Amino acid sequence: MKYKRALYIVLASIILVVVVFLIVRNNIFNNKHVSNFKVYEDDLDIVYGSDTAILNIFFYSSYNCSFCRKFLIEDFPELEKKYIHSGKVKFILKPIALTNNESVINSLKIAVCINEFGNFEKLNELLLEEPRVIYTDEFISIIDEFVEKDEFIAECMHGGESESYILRNLGSFNALGLTGTPTFIINNRIYKGYINFNELCRLIEKEIRYSLH
Amino acid sequence: MKTQKLFFLIMMVLSVAFVSCDKDDDKETCDSEDLADDFGCPTDVDALATFCSDGVNASYYTFNGTNYMCTGVDVSTCDNALNQIGALLIEAGCGTKKSGSIEKGMIELSAMAERLLSEVRTESLCN
Questions:
Q1: Is the pLDDT reported for residue A25 higher than 70?
Q2: Which one of A67, A81, A172, B47 has the lowest number of neighbouring Cβ atoms within 10 Å?
Q3: Is A166 found in the same domain as A94?
C-alpha cells in the first residue's frame, strides 16, 4: 500500500514536471514574454496608422539589421495594406542604435528629424536599400545641407531632441530586457526576431481578439 | 513520511535544475546580418553572421558557430573579424570581397542607391 502511494506521488511529480517543461518550452518556442515594463509612444517615433487603431504594434528596429530590413521591405507593405490602412493597427517604429558609432547615430537622428519635419519616404527607402550609405561623404553632406536649409531640422539634429530620443529608445529596449532586433511588442507581449506577414497576421488577429475582450 | 520527503527532494532537485538551466539575463545585444551582398555570395551560400556587443567592453561576430572578436564595442571596430569571415565566405564560393570595411569613401553604391540618394536630397525637405 505504502509502495503504491509512493509510486503515485513519483508519477504525479513526473507528470507535473513534464507539464511545466512543456509550458516553458512552448513559451520559448513562441518567443513570447510578457513584460512588466510598459512601452509608450514617443513624440519622435516613426508612426504609421491612426490613434484610434485597435492595436498598437511597437517595433524596435535598426537599419543595420538585415531581418529588420527584410520585414520592412517585404512584409510591412502588406501589413500596411491589410491592417494599417483599415484602421485596425497602429505601427510604431522605434529606431535603435546598438552602437556608439557616430555615423549610425547621426543617420538615426536625421531619420527621426526628417520624419518629424520633412518627407521621410525616400530617406527610409534609401536606408533600407543601402544601409552602408551612411558612411559615404555624400550622405554626410546631405545631412549638413538639411541642417543648413531647415531650422527645424537643425534644432532637431543639434538641439539634443533627437539624441535624447535615441537614448530613450535604448533605455526602453534595455528595460524590456531585449537583446536584439527586430523585436515586436504587442499588447505588452514581446515577440523577438523576424516575423513574416502571415505569422504576424495570426498574432494580430489573436491580439485584437484579446484587446476586444 | 518517507514518501513525502522523497517528493519534496525530487521537487527541490527539479526546481534547482530548472533555475540553473534558465537563460542568463545578460546585457548583450545581438543583430543578425546577412553578408551575402557584401561579399557577392551566390544564393546557396549561407552568409548569415551575428554581431553582438555588450556596449561596454567587447563585441564580436559569430559565423558558423565561431566567434570573431572585434577590437571595440561597435561594428566599426570589426574590420579584422569581417576579414576573417570574408576569407571563409570567399572559400565557400562567394565572389571578390566588395566591402567588409565601413570606412568612408570605400563604399560602392548601387545605381539604385545613387538614384535614391539624389531623390533624398531633393525631396526630403518641406519647401
A1: no
A2: A81
A3: yes
Give the minimum alpha-carbon distance from B28 to chain A in angstroms, rounded to a whole number.
Answer: 6
Q: What is the pLDDT of residues B47-79, one digit of tens each?
A: 888 888 887 778 888 888 888 888 887 777 787
pLDDT at A37: 84
User: A21 and A46: one domain?
Assistant: no
In angstroms, what separates the C-alpha of B94 from chain A's closest C-alpha?
18
Residues A7 and A70 in one domain: no
In 3D, which of A192, A210, A205, A209 has the Cα closest to residue A71? A192
Instruction: Give B112's contacts in chain A (Cβ within 8 Å).
Output: 129-130
Q: Total structural domains in chain A?
A: 2
Interchain CB contact of B13 with A (< 8 Å): no
Give how far A201 is from chain B: nearest CA, Å.
23
Q: Kindly state whether residues A18 and A105 are assigned to the same domain.
A: no
Residue type, B84: Q
Question: What residue numbers bound the domain in which A22 lies?
Answer: 1-30
pTM: 0.66
Chain A hits for B110, Cβ within 8 Å: 129-130
Q: Residue A122: list chain B partners with CB under 8 A.
A: 116, 119-120, 123-124
Which ranges in chain A belong to alpha helices (H)? 2-30, 66-70, 76-79, 102-117, 121-129, 137-149, 151-158, 161-175, 197-212
Each residue of B80-121: pLDDT tens digit? 788 778 878 877 777 654 444 444 445 678 888 999 999 999
Cis omega before residue A131 (within 30°)? no
